[in-house]
Design goal:
This protein is 21% helix and 22% strand. With 706 residues, it is α/β, with parallel strands linked by helices. A hairpin with a 6-residue loop joins strand 19 (287-288) and strand 20 (295-296). It is globular.
Length: 706
């Protein structure tokens, strides 16, 4: 059997290796028009930015390596220019000298990939205007940067390539402007999730312009001017076009193969085209979207590799089928990570799929363990069944692994309830006892069960301003002073005062509640609904609303889930819980750092250290602290604690001075809990402590069993 493969990257290379593993006697030929085979497309921007320093690292395999290890004939610099399915032949051109020859096949696999989009604008053929798709493209850009004084660059397009190139040009010391034709970057995300990326890009020094329609390129001094419709001009020493890709299917079209979405090659589940003995894989093919079943074009390396393996299996007589793609993707952008899988809102609406959504805000790992960063998680679900339809995450550490779990959940058809049941790995450096994936499931479960009604950021401006509804903000006074209210007509009642001030609210008016992240406002809604009020919780809270409704800058500093900053200059409040809650303020104490950092935003988690009369107590791996003779639960990985409180320590009483500048804070209405022990009692939410006018710190913000 003679198999000819056109295209030696991703799908083509995978198919060739799989074919050899299945059939030692097959003659396998790869035609690759570039000078490289099996190269890392996704790594190309990082060579430009100097993150990858050795050009040899860009190629995963060489023609010689293929020959020596797999016995595969790899012909680089040779392009298939004509396909004749009836004769089972391909006309091949040697790019070195332009000569051609005919090549017969028994089976043919097309893996031509995609070609960079070209806007067909005046001046785009200027040698300082680049595209990025091949190793040769990368080398040309890098050489230009090395040989010319490039101070300013303009990137046109805010997709994967555009964003990665913007990052790497900044790493190379180049002032970078990114022009995006549409209203958002990164189309796999919904606009409300992209808003945080916009703010972050600007914070990294990228000059971002949305709604910028490029009309052409013209010489300006020693460089170029990128011209916009309307006359605005941006100077540049280098321009990178990253306006997307299109399936490279000209060869297939001329051969009469059936084409589908975006001109991509139509294939069946075995990757067979409309021509006998001709297969196609990768960025050039039309696939079925796994969630909707609709035909789609999804140009990603993961699907391409899977399709190459399936095509090879079928060629060799094995049963194998491609069941569809989710479009799971992830992007590194400086320190930020953005990822998506399944359906976004735009896709769901286009496909006529009924959906609802929740926005949650979770820490990458236990917030008391150093280095925890938060992530915004948007999850789409079927309101009737609870089945997960899609997810998007923007954050820092741990985004990729949560997205992989959610992609697997969609593939398995899991519901929100089943998300809550997933046993995911937990240790303080890696996760939380209630993982962000579990938390998304809890919130969806609550929405579907009717425990809370929610509204979204774009509904805030549309709420009546005639007094017929109440906008209620339950953040602390410090938060409101620093961050402001959603609207000037909003009523401010801190969560910890809400039960005592219910008389200020009118039961005849619906109440729309917000906090920083949506968690305290959920608690407020549960209080209100059980007292006869009709209320709705702002999904994603003030934080999510602010990125979309205002032009606020991105704050990359680590915060706890309730918005309290962490770091060297942060005085961290403490809220410790027992059978009878007693609150301890850490007034004027130096901040706890590293393993001594205490974060009171997680219920049911172990806190490794806490200030105690100027000293530190840790016993048996669990935090133990006397509070009027009681042990305060540390939680641990299983939420359990044991043992008795230390007997050699003085009992602390309300109002008793404890260490320099430290006093036990009284909670009105609370009595001493003399001699009460742990006994497996679950922690209870108590009032937070306002520090220097900053946000409160209610223990449980983000780790509530919602």
């Amino acid at each position: 059997m003679k198999v000819v493969i056109i295209g030696g990257v991703a799908g083509g290379a995978t198919a060739a290796a799989r074919l050899r593993r299945l059939d030692e006697r097959a003659e396998i030929i790869i035609l690759e028009r570039t000078g490289y085979v099996s190269y890392a497309n996704c790594g190309l921007p990082y060579y430009v930015g100097g993150v990858i320093t050795d050009r040899e690292e860009l190629t995963l395999q060489t023609p010689e390596g293929f020959r020596n290890r797999f016995g595969i004939d790899v012909r680089v610099g040779q392009e298939a220019v004509e396909l004749h399915p009836e004769q089972h032949t391909v006309t091949v051109r040697r790019l070195e000298d332009g000569s051609t020859y005919a090549l017969h096949y028994d089976k043919l696999l097309l893996s031509p990939g995609a070609r960079p989009g070209r806007p067909n604008l005046p001046g785009e053929d200027d040698p300082r205007v680049f595209t990025l798709r091949t190793v040769e493209d990368t080398l040309r850009i890098r050489a230009y940067l090395d040989e010319h004084p490039v101070r300013r660059a303009v990137v046109v397009g805010g997709g994967f390539i555009g964003l990665e190139m913007a990052e790497n040009l900044v790493h190379a010391g180049v002032h970078t402007t990114l022009l995006q034709r549409g209203a958002q970057v990164l189309p796999p995300l919904d606009a409300d999730m992209a808003a945080e990326i916009h703010a972050y890009l600007r914070g990294q020094g990228v000059e971002l312009r949305l709604g910028a329609r490029v009309s052409g390129f013209s010489p300006q001094g020693d460089g170029l001017a990128v011209e916009l419709e309307g006359g605005e001009r941006f100077p540049a020493d280098l321009v990178l076009l990253g306006i997307g890709v299109a399936p490279d299917t000209e060869l297939a079209r001329r051969a009469g193969l059936a084409l589908g979405v975006k001109g991509a090659i139509s294939v069946d589940g075995q990757m067979r085209t409309s021509a006998p003995d001709v297969y196609a894989v990768g960025d050039a093919v039309e696939v079925r979207h796994f969630v909707t079943g609709a035909k789609s074009h999804i140009a990603l390396a993961g699907p391409a590799n899977k399709q190459g393996r399936i095509a090879a299996d079928h060629i060799c007589g094995r049963r194998s089928a491609y069941t569809g793609a989710l479009g799971t993707s992830v992007l590194k952008l400086f320190d930020l990570t953005a990822a998506s899988t399944g359906l976004n809102e735009k896709q769901a609406r286009a496909a006529g799929v009924a959906y609802d959504k929740v926005v949650t805000y979770s820490a990458s790992h236990a917030s008391y363990y150093p280095g925890a960063r938060n992530m915004t998680v948007k999850t789409l679900f079927d309101p009737a069944s609870g089945r997960i339809l899609g997810a998007q995450i923007v954050g820092f550490d741990g985004v990729d692994k949560r997205m992989d779990v959610l992609a697997a959940a969609i593939r398995a058809g899991l519901t929100a309830e089943q998300l809550t049941e997933l046993d995911l790995a937990y240790a303080p450096p890696y996760g939380s006892a209630k993982d962000p994936v579990n938390m998304a499931g809890y919130v969806i479960e609550n929405v579907r069960a009717g425990l809370v009604e929610q509204h979204h950021w774009d509904a805030v401006a549309e709420l009546p301003a005639d007094g017929s509804v109440i906008l209620l903000d339950v953040r602390t006074p410090g938060e409101v002073r620093k961050q402001g209210l959603l609207r000037s007509d909003a009523l401010h009642i801190p969560l910890d005062e809400l039960r005592g001030r219910l008389g200020e609210l009118d039961k005849g008016k619906k109440i729309y509640v917000n906090c920083y992240s949506g968690l305290r406002s959920y608690l407020a809604c549960r209080i209100l609904s059980q007292h006869g009020f009709q209320c709705s919780n702002l999904s994603g809270g003030w934080r999510f609303w602010s990125y979309n409704a205002t032009d606020r800058a991105h704050d990359a500093a680590p915060t706890h889930l309730c918005g309290v900053p962490t770091g060297k200059d942060q005085k961290i409040p403490a809220a410790f819980l027992g059978k009878q809650p007693v609150l301890y303020a850490m007034a004027e104490q130096p901040p706890l750092q590293g393993e001594r950092q205490q974060a009171a935003c997680q219920i049911g988690q172990q806190i490794p250290r806490v200030a105690h009369g100027g000293g530190l107590i840790q016993q048996g791996g669990q935090l133990q602290k006397e509070a009027a003779g009681q042990q305060i639960p540390g939680g641990g990985r299983n939420g359990a604690y044991g043992g008795q409180p230390p007997q050699n320590e003085k009992k602390l009483h309300q109002g008793q001075q404890q260490g320099p500048g430290q006093k036990v804070a009284e909670i009105p209405g609370q009595e001493e809990a003399e001699g009460t022990g742990g006994g497996g009692e679950k922690p209870q939410l108590v009032a937070g402590v306002e520090q220097d006018g900053g946000p409160d710190h209610p223990r449980g913000e983000g780790e509530l069993a919602l």
